[in-house]
Design a protein that fits this description.
- The complex is a heterotrimer.
- Chain A is of the alpha+beta class.
- In chain A, the strands form 5 sheets. Chain A has a 5-stranded mixed β-sheet. Chain A has a 3-stranded antiparallel β-sheet with strand order 10-7-11, sandwiched between helices. Chain A has a two-stranded antiparallel sheet with strand order 4-5.
- In chain A, α14 packs across α15 and α17 runs antiparallel to α18.
- Chain A is globular, with a radius of gyration of 26 Å.
- Chain B starts with a helix and ends in a 7-residue tail after the last helix.
- Chain B is mainly α.
- In chain B, α6 packs across α9, α7 packs parallel to α12 and α14 packs antiparallel against α15.
- Chain B is flat.
- By secondary structure, chain C is an all-alpha fold.
- Chain C is built from 15 helices and no strands.
- In chain C, α4 packs across α8, α8 packs antiparallel against α11 and α13 runs antiparallel to α14.
- Chain C is globular.
- The chains are: A alpha+beta, B mainly alpha, C mainly alpha.
- The interface between B and C is large, with 98 and 99 residues.
Chain lengths: ~525, ~300, ~300
């Protein structure tokens, strides 16, 4: 036994020794090499590009089948214009979040990476993953620097540092439901305008068509409805059960399970569940309600507005006998917020070897239509072509659609409205919808609040836990006794530390509101 | 130390033969083990592993503060014990049958077929489970209806899921585990059986007095090997079958799924590592104790 | 006496056939449903779930899997080469280590076993592992990252050691007396006697290599280097992920992978292995030791 112990100890000794070596190595190659020293400029005031460099870029998502050709052409152009080539890496969608985090943790030299509010941009910023671009932008990306709206720059500024180049593509992605207009008319049901007509529609198709209206996974349909119906706003991304009570009172932050609205809502949802608007196994279902619409056994599907347009277009093409329409939840309170600029963008990690040249490439990509069209739409005459009015047809007319497809990669990071082209075969309702949104648009005041929950992370974890175990079944009306379930849910939330989280978020919101001069 | 050098000299070749493997583990396992330090820091990219602020046990808080740790540990251990014992028992039985049955063709086919579940990903297993048990269109409820019986709402009851999960785990590993026992049976010398046959032992006697005792070391070894991971759950199995269906968590929540959900909204390297460390430590203590006991009683069977 | 033996053998065979048949059926049925599902139309699966026979027979799922056949064949090639090489190399190192640890006269066998087993208990997690492979070994986008880390596992070594323990010590001793070196004993005597063990570990290694998609997922960035499993997982994941958080933030609509596609993918990956498995079974032959000991 004693002998074994000594041996075990020596093993550990060895390990810790190696740990020391590893630490020494990684310590040496840390972040001390300052990238501040901007590349020397030539006399004419133009950046010096005499040295040939290869940049290392990462995009989320998959490459297109035609990507090798497109990238080759792109690199030819870059070599000529900027004496640069780019190795463009694709992260692929499998576990992309894990991979995305690993890229930063590994210290790999990356010159540009896709960044987004939905890819933890704010959290990574707070943890110091990105390079400050403030001093580089005016020199190396002057046009971008001038044309990106002030507000968008502000959204990516953290402690005085500009940490990303947001895309310039105002878009609206409010939630809503796609539903079957043909069934509604056939069964003489009212158009969906509010919660009551929605209930009438569900009830009508349930009886008239003998199907489950929201078949499959109905959680999104109910959860987004709840938030929009009461105008409960998420703060700084997905803030779970902590919400601002309405757009007009940003400082009024609550944990919604403790509100009367919540009680009213879950009681109503209980009646909906009992009427069979969705199945008792809905929380376990994996299939999208949209798949059931296609199969003729579903009647409603949650989509954001552009997603709805895509779904309806697709349905018209493949199932022309099914007629769909869209009810955006914005109709409850008659306003909509545009997405943040940094909803998609590009950023430079601290590890970058050539941030200056990388910015110059991005500048080209965003502003030069030749670059933009190539990297966004693919090869002209093959993947796409323009009509006379500037709409895009993909693949290009004359190509065999079985062999050549429209080009598609996650090009969202450099999107620029002035270079965008609308698709020719889009749903006609979409333009109307966008006009409608533009008229009722209000600036997004909640999303740019940076929260990393560091001080309350264990409480947040516990609250999220309780939310899934008790909150979701309750909101789906899948509990036998609603009052008792609310009681349990609330007390579990308390134990989990919901108050601490609420406190933290309230303070963050107040500080933000002070800074921005909100009510 | 001098003993070590003498030994090294004596068994030079043996040491050389095992050296590549040891080197491999030093590089690929012990080297990255420094990462357990993440569990004690508040990670940021500026500081990296050793430059981030040290926070002590703070990252472990989310495990025990909400009071769920005990029931989670209990669930995980009980599930794993069921998996280990029921699984090994069935694999053992299959291996014995497969080695003794007469029909060659039958045996080979059966063995191949039993391997099939191993290839079915848990995503598809999850889809099967849903198709079998859901209330509206599920196969089981459809059958119940056909026979004029009451349907049973599986997704509103927590009780059946324990058995469903254990069943699918055992089902999935059956062929894989059987191979180990089969190989162990194959390495038993035929002499024993021949001798027993001459003595007039029937097939049950031979299994009882020859095959099973010869398989005990393998059985114990496999159990011991599994014990180290007793707090590590089969995340995919639980996640694909139960998913985010909160109503069933009471009986089906294990540490891995709990941690996954906890960190789904706000991922944190420190907290993730902390949970893993707890699982490892628990398994480590358990294996060391069990191995120690076995070593006291039957030295041959011990792992190390 | 004779009659009693026969009767018990008969009983054993009846029970055995029944038990094994039932278990086989339980294992076969879901697989059959997958095959059937992979030939079904999407609407049919959504509407009726899994069926024993598809009512409309279609190849469309396979067509989309093989929409880019060169890529699939290339991926097959990558997977087959990796599996073959990894299994052979792995078997070599594992069996050597297993042999050394099984030698009762090897003084450090227990502490080294512990050294090896310990690695299954504690791990540093994904990040240090990734840093090791990418930064220190510089294996990003290299086949080595797929080949080497999976080659040796503690679990396989310990199993191997266990199999080799049942080889009578007398064999080693008599060989030593004949003047054979350690390596000769291992390669000429022990390996041929360990075929069931080698076959088992080889099978496990091969399966692990064949099924591994995660290493490629994090280490490989060049599409031409994707192994089969990863390529197929990619087909499934690309749209599945987009259904969730990403899609909600984008003005783009993505088509989720169809159920039938999932099943076709499962069949394409599993098929070759299932055909190979029977060939492997011949290594499970009984009683090899007898001749050796007597000889």
């Amino acid at each position: 036994m004693k002998q074994r112990l000594t041996k075990m100890l020596s093993v550990f000794l060895m390990v810790s020794l190696m740990a020391g070596i590893l630490a020494a190595c990684s310590g040496g190659s840390g972040d001390d090499e300052s990238t501040k020293a901007a590349a020397p400029k030539t006399e004419s005031g133009k950046p010096d590009i005499s040295k040939k460099v290869e940049l290392n870029w990462y995009l989320v998502g998959d490459a297109d089948k035609d990507s090798p050709q497109v990238i080759e052409k792109w690199n030819q152009m870059l070599a000529k214009d900027l004496n640069t080539t780019v190795k463009l890496n694709f992260m692929t969608w499998n576990d992309w979040q894990t991979k995305y985090n690993l890229l930063f943790a590994s210290g790999e030299k990356i010159d540009m990476v896709f960044a987004s509010s939905w890819a933890d941009f704010f959290k990574l910023s707070k943890q110091g993953a990105f390079l400050d671009l403030k001093d580089l932008l005016p020199t190396y990306a002057p046009e971008t620097w001038k044309t990106v709206p002030e507000q968008d720059w502000k959204d990516v500024t953290f402690q005085g540092k500009i940490l990303a180049v947001p895309s310039t593509y105002p878009e609206y992605t409010p939630d809503g439901i796609v539903y079957r207009d043909d069934w509604r008319q056939e069964l003489n049901l009212p158009e969906i305008k509010d919660l009551d007509t929605m209930e009438q529609y569900y009830e009508g198709v349930k009886k008239g068509k003998k199907i489950t209206p929201i078949n499959g996974k109905a959680w999104n349909e109910v959860n987004t409805l709840f938030h929009y119906y009461y105008d409960f706003k998420n703060i700084g991304g997905d803030s779970g059960v902590i919400v601002a009570k309405s757009y007009d009172t940003p400082r009024d932050v609550v944990a919604y399970p403790f509100t009367d609205e919540f009680v009213t809502f879950v009681k109503r949802m209980k009646t909906w569940a009992d009427k069979g608007f969705w199945t008792s196994s809905t929380l376990a279902a994996q299939q999208e309600p949209g798949d059931f619409i296609k199969a003729g056994t579903g009647a409603a599907y949650w989509r954001n507005a552009p997603g709805a347009a895509g779904f309806i277009t697709d349905m018209k093409k493949n199932n022309p006998n099914i007629k769909l329409t869209y009810f955006p939840f914005t109709h409850f309170h008659n306003y909509v917020v545009p997405n943040l600029g940094i909803n998609n963008g590009m950023a430079i990690p601290k590890s970058a070897a050539n941030p200056e040249r990388s910015l110059m490439v991005l500048e080209k990509l965003r502003n030069d239509p030749e670059y933009y069209n190539l990297m966004t739409y693919g090869i002209k005459g093959r993947n796409y072509d323009f009509t006379k009015d500037g709409s895009i047809v993909s693949p290009a007319p004359g190509q065999d659609p079985a062999k050549v497809k429209g080009y598609g990669i996650a090009s969202w990071g450099w999107r620029n409205i002035k270079n965008e082209h609308p698709a020719k075969d889009r749903w006609e309702g979409e333009d109307k919808l966008i006009e409608e949104f533009k008229a009722i648009s209000k600036p997004d005041i909640f999303a740019p609040i940076m929260m990393d929950y560091q001080p309350v992370k264990s409480q947040l974890a516990a609250v999220n836990q309780v939310f899934q175990q008790y909150g979701q079944p309750l909101m789906m009306g899948l509990v036998p006794d609603v009052d008792a379930a609310i009681e349990t849910y609330r007390s579990k939330l308390k134990t989990a530390g919901v108050d601490a989280v609420l406190d933290y978020v309230t303070k963050q919101v107040a500080a933000y509101a002070d800074e921005k001069g909100l009510k | 130390m001098s003993g070590f050098i003498a030994e090294l000299r004596k068994n030079k070749i043996l040491f050389l033969m095992i050296a590549p493997v040891l080197f491999f583990f030093v590089v690929f396992s012990y080297f990255p083990m420094v990462g357990v330090y993440y569990a004690f820091t508040n990670y940021n990219f500026e500081g990296g592993l050793f430059g981030s602020p040290f926070v002590g046990m703070q990252n472990f808080k989310f495990l025990y503060e909400s009071g769920a740790l005990f029931s989670l540990t209990k669930n995980t251990v009980l599930y794993n014990l069921a998996f280990i014992f029921i699984g090994n028992f069935l694999q053992l039985i299959c291996a014995i049958f497969l080695s003794e049955l007469a029909g060659k063709w039958f045996k080979k086919t059966a063995q191949s077929i039993m391997f099939l579940p191993f290839f079915i990903s848990f995503v598809l297993v999850g889809a099967f489970v849903f198709n079998l048990f859901n209330t509206e269109t599920g196969v089981i409820n459809a059958l119940l209806k056909q026979f004029g019986m009451h349907t049973y709402d599986f997704y509103m009851n927590t009780e059946p899921w324990k058995y469903i999960i254990v069943f699918f785990n055992v089902w999935k590993g059956l062929g894989y585990g059987t191979v180990i026992y089969l190989a162990a049976i194959m390495s038993i010398s035929d002499e024993y059986h021949e001798a027993a046959k001459i003595d007039g032992a029937n097939i049950f006697h031979r299994i009882r007095y020859i095959t099973i005792p010869m398989l005990v070391p393998t059985f114990i070894l496999l159990i011991l090997l599994s014990l180290g991971g007793i707090l590590k759950g089969q995340f995919d199995l639980f996640y694909q079958i139960i998913g985010s269906n909160g109503m069933l968590f009471e009986t089906t929540d294990i540490i891995d799924t709990y941690v996954y959900r906890s960190l789904a909204v706000n991922f944190d390297i420190g907290m993730g590592t902390a949970a893993g460390l707890y699982q490892s430590f628990f398994g480590f203590v358990l294996v060391m104790s069990v191995n120690w006991i076995i070593k006291k009683t039957r030295e041959d069977y011990a792992l190390f | 006496m004779k009659i009693r033996t026969d009767r018990s053998t008969l009983l054993f065979n009846i029970v055995g056939y029944v038990v094994i048949s039932i278990l086989s059926l339980v294992c076969l049925l879901p697989f059959w449903l997958i095959i059937s599902g992979s030939f079904s139309s999407e609407a049919e699966i959504v509407r009726d779930g899994f069926k024993i026979f598809p009512s409309e027979f279609t190849f469309s799922a396979y067509q989309s899997v093989f929409s880019n056949p060169q890529q699939i064949f290339k991926a097959y090639l990558v997977s087959i080469s990796l599996t073959a090489m990894g299994t052979l190399l792995g078997l070599f190192f594992i069996s050597m280590a297993g042999y050394v640890l099984s030698r009762k006269d090897f003084k450090y066998r227990n502490s080294l076993s512990f050294f090896i087993y310990f690695t299954t208990l504690f791990s540093g997690g994904l990040i240090p592992w990734y840093i090791l492979v990418v930064k220190y070994l510089d294996w990003k986008d290299s086949y080595l990252a797929l080949l080497v880390p999976m080659m040796i596992s503690a679990w396989n070594i310990i199993l191997m050691k266990n199999f080799m323990k049942s080889i009578p010590e007398s064999i080693v001793e008599s060989a030593k007396i004949d003047g054979a070196g350690e390596f000769t004993i291992y390669s000429r005597l022990i390996l041929p006697l360990s075929t069931p063990g080698l076959a088992t570990i080889g099978l496990f290694l091969g399966l692990a290599y064949w099924n591994d998609w995660f290493s490629a997922n994090i280490f490989i960035t060049t599409e031409a280097k994707y192994p089969l499993q990863f390529l197929l997982y990619k087909i499934l994941a690309s749209a599945a992920v987009l259904k969730t958080s990403v899609a909600a933030n984008l003005s783009a609509d993505f088509k989720p992978p169809t159920e039938s596609l999932k099943m076709a993918v499962a069949i394409v990956v599993t098929g070759p292995i299932i055909f190979l498995y029977p060939f492997m079974q011949r290594y499970f032959v009984k009683g090899l030791t007898i001749g050796a000991v007597k000889g």
